[in-house]
Amino acid sequence: MKLTFRAVDEPIPGEKWAGLFRQFWPSYRKWWLSQGEQARPGYLACRRAIQQHMPELLAVYDDLAELAGGSDRAARFLSLYSPPAYQAACSQAVSTGAEPLLVRNYDYHPDAFDAVILRTQWLGKRVIGVSDCLIGVLDGINEDGLVVSLTFGGRGVVGAGFGIPLVLRYILETCKTVGQAVRVLQRVPCHMAYNVTVLDRSCRYKTVFVSPDRAAIVTDAAAATNHQHEVEWDDHARASSSVEREEFLLNRLKRQGAIPERLVTAFHRPPLYSPQFNTGFGTLYTAVYRPKMKSLELQWPGLSWPMSISDFHDESRTINFAQQLE
Prior knowledge:
By secondary structure, the protein is of the alpha+beta class. Helices cover 31% and strands 28% of the residues.
């Protein structure tokens, strides 16, 4: 299996973003309509939700909807308000010290992945993020050195709220510190359970357990996999080895927390690295964020792709996952 990753630099949404939308919209439209159009909120409800909870993004949302062609369906999709349910695996951990970093593996099905890294400046702040749903991010960093990353929270409950990638985008666009990011996660409703880890240049970090049916839980957890305080979805936890991965990470942090590169290397090996691409739990990339350097490095076993807020260019990398597994 091969997958081409692209870095796309476009400060203000324009033709590059519109081209990405044209490419990915057929697949996203199929997913968005998978439960029938009536299962999704109407346009006015979607726009009001952004205006109420993330007002700073409203003008950008309107601009993106126009770039997407101005259709009702596209605008409703781009709000990421109460979208269809989706789950992933993923692992993430924070190492503090002289050079704090956040490391994460993104485990998902390659057919449902943008494989696009965007550098933007939508609200005046430079942001690099791994794109999801064209408006959100799976993980990212901004020019203040604030880092965010998500994992699925291992609960089947679904409610009214936003898809978490848009909330992460909002954090990167509007926040400078962990404290500010935590307050966003406490007040903005999310439609499913997720674990969001935030780290800033001052070495402060938190992992916040968000869910649609209960208040956000703010923790000092330095590692997160696919459950929250305890396993609540046994089948998913077993299929994704969530408990085993968390225990592995906690042991690594305890023994090697002062040696960040050893932690990074651990993400390239089992049980953190997964080859289960056909089941949706394959590791598509490892991301290493260094907030003091304002940098991101995408990694695969034996390969790396560094970039930063100040050094970012349109380019691509094709990854042969068969070679990664040899």
